[in-house]
């Protein structure tokens, strides 16, 4: 629900650009009895479009501190309240107050929620699902994002909801989803990880730990047998304890610790893979890109809608492949294919003058391939894979920094794209090819698979051969060994160092 709101708001001013510009002119007439010149109207429209990115960057910085004050659910509820206020400002206040300032402030608040949600929503999904299914549950949210972009481009057309009298309804529409969430929020629980940390002890006696509220919540959210759920619960607590033992919960200690630093850098690179493909520029300037390939201006918006629908369909269709091949392989294939597509697009654009009809078809083919590979790889996997390769206590810091880098890249790309396109035209896409090549090499040689990352996190030992880890992790000997180490190293002195630990129990025995 949060993702469809974000998608609608991000592209909302693209199809309604002409209509909102007319409103700005009417606002000038109402206030000063004159129309605004092209420079004034253009500046206001630029401010309104860019405020969602400025708000996103502020939100990305702020969410770290919000998570320290409020619970996961409280933060998400607050963001939906801000979304409602944002929708009212962009629609009712803007229209009836004849105030383009309200539109700008509303876009900023919308961006703020977007920036916070970029960290918060994937974090909540990761803390609710199992490590094996994180990417699978993250994938549909990205498909919804693309559907939201397609819906927004369609509803924003002048003859749908983008007309002079109907655009306020269009900009108010995302607030409806927030109202639905606010009604349902009292029935939604906190995440499992947050519940474990909220309880007095992370490590408790065997006879008591499976009666705690956090375990009861896990049972409700899992379909496996009791033994499987108990093993997952012990794994989650061991992972938390391993991170706490290393004192890696502060950001400075995350940077200083070798294992945690590897997780942090890997997560940042993974989270920025989607921006490296240039998808932010494509999303906001799709019409311009299609026009550059030779598509008539009056048809470009329909091609844009088709591209977003194609991305959503590819996301839905390829989701089952995550279980079979894993996020790491899929993101590498997707990035490689995206780089090839951008090179093909560049060649077709630079040679279009020699054979316009053929090169237009080649350009369209390149954009179709680009949409498919981006959806199949980085768009499908970037959030899930980033949360897979981080521990539960390192994950909030990794998602926080990743969100800041993501929003910084998004702002830089959006603000620079028009000028770079004007300066170097088709060669613009080669910039993203270079970024994608860097990401592929880094992930290939420095980022482990999901299973490998889990082994490294628990044992703190490097793994040279990724394929050798899976049978080791499934070994009962390995499970008993790591469980014994977990209990042996969980000393009373460590408990006193963390606020989530209570007094040590004196009659605990090892789990079976």
How helical, in percent, are the residues?
over 70%
Radius of gyration: 25 Å
Distance between the termini: 41 Å
Tell me the β content.
under 5%
Overall shape? globular
Order of helices and strands: HHHHHHHHHHHHHHHHHHHHHHHHHH
- Give the strand tally: 0
Total number of helices? 26
Low-pLDDT segments:
201-207, 457-512
Structural class: mainly alpha
Profile the largest sheet: none
Nearest-integer average pLDDT = 77
Describe what you observe in this structure.
- By secondary structure, this protein is mainly α.
- It has 26 helices and no strands.
- The chain has helices spanning 2-10, 17-32, 38-69, 72-96, 100-128, 134-155, 167-184, 192-198, 206-209, 213-221, 226-245, 251-256, 258-271, 273-276, 279-284, 286-292, 297-318, 321-325, 327-350, 356-388, 395-424, 429-446, 450-459, 469-473, 476-489, 492-495.
- Helix 19 runs antiparallel to helix 22.
- The chain is globular and about 75 Å long.
- The two termini are 41 Å apart.
Q: What is this entry, summarized?
A:
It is found in: Membrane. With 512 residues, the protein is an all-alpha fold.
What distinguishing features does this structure have?
single chain, 512 residues, disordered C terminus, globular, mainly alpha
How do the helices and strands line up, and which of them pair or pack?
Blueprint: H1 2-10, H2 17-32, H3 38-69, H4 72-96, H5 100-128, H6 134-155, H7 167-184, H8 192-198, H9 206-209, H10 213-221, H11 226-245, H12 251-256, H13 258-271, H14 273-276, H15 279-284, H16 286-292, H17 297-318, H18 321-325, H19 327-350, H20 356-388, H21 395-424, H22 429-446, H23 450-459, H24 469-473, H25 476-489, H26 492-495
Helix pairs in contact: 1-5, 1-6, 1-7, 2-3, 3-5, 3-21, 4-5, 4-7, 5-21, 6-17, 6-20, 8-10, 13-20, 13-21, 13-22, 16-17, 17-20, 19-20, 19-22
